[in-house]
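W.,

You were right to be curious about this one. When I first looked at the sequence I had no strong expectations either way, so I just let the prediction run and decided to look at it fresh. Below is the sequence, 159 residues in total, followed by the output.
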Amino acid sequence: MSRIGIGYDLHLLVLERKLFLGGIEIPYIKGLLGHSDADVLLHALCDSLLGAIGEADIGEHFPDIDPKYQGISSMELLNLVLGLVKKKGYSVCNVDTVIIAQEPNLVPFKKKIKENIARALKINNDCVGIKAKTNEGVGVIGNKEAIACYAVALVKRRD
C-alpha cells in the first residue's frame, strides 16, 4: 500500500541568523527565524512524511516550547521522522519540494540539497525533487521577508 502526504512551512528572514535549506548552509545576509535552525524545506518535508503515515504535524512532535529542540538541526528532526516512518512499517519512495524565495538564488545549491536529502532518506537522488521559485515580488516572500516551502512525500508499506 502506498500513501501520500503534503507539507508546508514558512519562516521569516532575519539578520544575524544562518540560512539553512535542505540541511545545507546557504550564504546569505539573513537567516530564517525559528526555535530550531528553521530549515523551512526540511520542516515541510517532515510534515509531508508525517502526513503520509497518518501522524500529527512537526509542531506536535517537536514543540517549539520544548528546550531540547532549541537550535536543533532540522536534519536531526528529519532523522527522527524517518524513524517514525520505519516504525510504522513504511519506507520512503520519493519526495518532491518547491522552495519559494525571492532571494537568494538557489540554483547553485539545488544539486547539493537534493543529494543531502536523498542521503538522509536513504533513497536515490532521482527520487528527490527540488524546485525553487520566486514570488514575483508579491507579499512577504516577494519582499524578501520570508521563505516558504511545499513538500509531497510518497511512502509504501514494507513487505
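Here's what jumped out at me. The chain has one domain: 2-157. And, maybe more interesting for your project: Helices lie at 40-52, 58-61, 74-87, 110-121, 139-142.

Coffee later to discuss?

I.
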